[in-house]
Amino acid sequence: MAGTGRRQNILLITCDQWRGDSLSAVGHPVVKTPNSDALAREGVLFSRHYAGAAPCSPARACLYTGLYQMNNRVCRNGTPLDDRHDNIARAARRVGYDPTLFGYTDVSPDPRNRAPGDPFLRSYEGVLPGFTTRQLLPEHQKGWLSWLTQRGIDSSAGFPDVHRPSNADALEVSNAVPIYSKDETPAAFLTGEFLRWLGEQDKGEPWFAHVSFLSPHPPFIVPEPFNTMYDPAEGPAYNRAPSFEAEKASHPFLAYHLEHHQGKSSFIPGAPGKVGDWSEDEFRKIRALYYGMISEVDSQLGRIWQGIRDKGDWDNTIVILTSDHAEMMGEHHMLGKGGWFDGSYHIPLIVKAPGHERAAGSTVDRFTAAVDIMPTLLELVGGAAQPHLDGQSLKPFLDGDEPADWRDAAHWEYDFRSVANGTTEAYFGTGSRQLNLSVIRTETVKYVHFGGGLPPLLYDLANDPGETRNLANDPEWLAVRLEFAERLLAWRAKHLDQSLALSELAENGPTGHFLRLP
User: In which domain of life is the source organism classified (predicted)?
Assistant: First the structure.
């Protein structure tokens, strides 16, 4: 190992809803992320990194467990994570770390291990087992709100109204500023809490911190100077159907999703109507704010880098910077995440690992996945990744090597059941088990398979990277559709739960791999 030779520190950073194309290091024509870029110059940037699911809880379950959704079975926000599964925090504890959380993990606890009246069962925003919680900051942001109050700012409006413009007369979509400054954002607060904790760590004792920022997740508002940092007129053209109604008509899932899950108020507090009612200019104004939110959280990353350097720990700290899932940001007339489009699943990943500098400053364009984080981190710190995990260690790439058997496609899943109220089940007239989709995406082709009889989708990404023309029923593409359906089936067969399937009871006793329950 680099530095002093002691076990390395670990810093895992997630920035919620950050698109993988929205970093200057990957060549975005507008967004500027100097601190993320600086990390990429010392580490490795993975340009084709994908979430395993959406929204937050399912996406994070893939990252934290190293298992695809088909195995961790966290389908929606609020689906409990089965306590039999190992996770990144528990595994780190086994090799001597005290994983410490700043922010949130959105992991719903297994109710079978709790009393019926346990208040933790009334929210999906639980903490991943194995973490010590230093500063919890779930979506209600109460820790941050009380901090604002101590600074003399009236935060009594609470979440999400505290994120409305300070000017009550501001337009529905504008770059009006909130009541808090750039030094008082939730990201600034969380960074300060991490740096304070960092100063308490004994020299020579390895630490593990998970800083989980909500930014650039909506509401879409940001203080100066980030509110005017980007010109709405700049930025790439949108990939979308000619109109909101035409987008809805293109597939039964979109007819449901755009009608029932695209309310303006989910993105700008108090805004009435649907996202599809906004004009092109308004979408661009929102995108400029989103870019500003990315730059704001990037500025806090700079504070973190400097704080670790000042502590003398930079050369002995593994840093992983990523997101849980991405953000449609106007593509296909949508905001938020879900469905099958790349805009919801392509996320950033930068890994800096001291002692593995041979590939420093390089970019890897092979397909990598959220499930790769857990095995990577364990291998870097001398732990053993369980062989039943779906992810693969990225360490060979960090050492400048090219694994011979690396995957040639990305896969993700999206489940749109609604167990609590049954609205989706009622709309489609089917049971919860059928409300899902699976994606296989290669460099040139994407195939989307639905449960419940919904029609499949097939895109020629070489000629239609914006995913605007479904070729699933084109006679000339039927052979490709069959090939990719078979590939998807083979992927599922390979990755079906292997917890005990890699073991066998033989004449001389148990052989193979046995998952030790936490």
Answer: Bacteria
